[in-house]
């Protein structure tokens, strides 16, 4: 069968592939600890579920406007003022089927073949796939372990060329967990102020999962709102991964472009989800606060359990729910004839021997690391740490 050429430019996300492998082993009766997927293990708070039930009972079961119901767009504007002190109008909001679709809408609306898109590494898998789909040229900026995988203004300046169309990043970052401080963002914004033709996608989906302080958005600095597209969603902060709701706030022209595209792709996202999202965004974020407290405890626990495992080099991240250790010291080592050549080999070894599922750093363009999600119970984290210690020690 001859499928369209564009499919050869993307592959199945490794995160999803590892979770699939993990489920297969579980189905064979193997007790696997799955640290591969990026989703809270909490259930959606009750008041949000109640709003969805009322939406069904009240008959909100029809198509909605493509960009979202008016109440939800207003709720997003309210949230941006309350949490980020940012002023937007409802016309600048476009609601989509997950932040993944929001990102796809924006990249498809902005990137033409040959346009350069700067993405600091490590980055979330989907960013590169979307740029490749549009035949854009990915320009990476290498984040270093020593600098907590955050880039400097000098690195950014050096990467910008007359062909640069877009810069995309996440803070808090998936996979590194790094969080840019307000000062660091301000310094990056100062570079962008010299290049007004470059757009910025600021993926803030982990906004609430921040352990060290108030979330900062690059959109809050002068001249940034007119070229910044904030991407956010409810999956992580409200434990709503299955509901599929993401949104952007953007300069009006970009908001309209993504609405046009979405009108041909999916139309508005689920009406029921949208009513639930209003309840999530207009109420206080205390449930998110409770969840973050648990994530912080787990981060501290898992970090403490792993930090002195010989061969693991590990930073303590300030946000999201991942550890991203450098495991390159294991390259070239082996166990029973199985040689670990790279991070994918190590992930396979950990899955089949230790029965712990992780994701190779290759997936995030950082081949010396692996990603482990700690969005799971403390019992499972303890078990995973014990297994990792045992099986890593066997590599000689
Ligand atoms: N951005 C980042 C950085 C993510 O980690 C994720 C989910 N893993 C998303 C966007 C997409 O989230 P969703 O589509 O569930 O809203």
Automatic annotation (TrEMBL):
SUPFAM superfamilies given in the database record: PLP-dependent transferases
Entry's Gene Ontology molecular function annotations: pyridoxal phosphate binding; transaminase activity
Assigned EC number: 2.6.1.-
Pfam families: Aminotran_1_2
Cofactor dependency: pyridoxal 5'-phosphate
Gene3D superfamilies given in the database record: Aspartate Aminotransferase, domain 1 (3.90.1150.10), Type I PLP-dependent aspartate aminotransferase-like (Major domain) (3.40.640.10)
Protein family membership: Belongs to the class-I pyridoxal-phosphate-dependent aminotransferase family.
UniProt enzyme class: transferase
Top-level division of the source organism's lineage: Bacteria
GO BP terms, alphabetized: amino acid metabolic process
Protein name from the UniProt record: Aminotransferase
InterPro entries: Aminotransferase_I/II_large, AspAT/PAT-like, NHTrfase_class1_PyrdxlP-BS, PyrdxlP-dep_Trfase, PyrdxlP-dep_Trfase_major, PyrdxlP-dep_Trfase_small
PANTHER family cross-referenced by the UniProt entry: ASPARTATE AMINOTRANSFERASE
Sequence ranges assigned to domain Aminotransferase class I/classII large in this UniProt record: 31-388
Keywords of this entry: Aminotransferase, Pyridoxal phosphate, Transferase
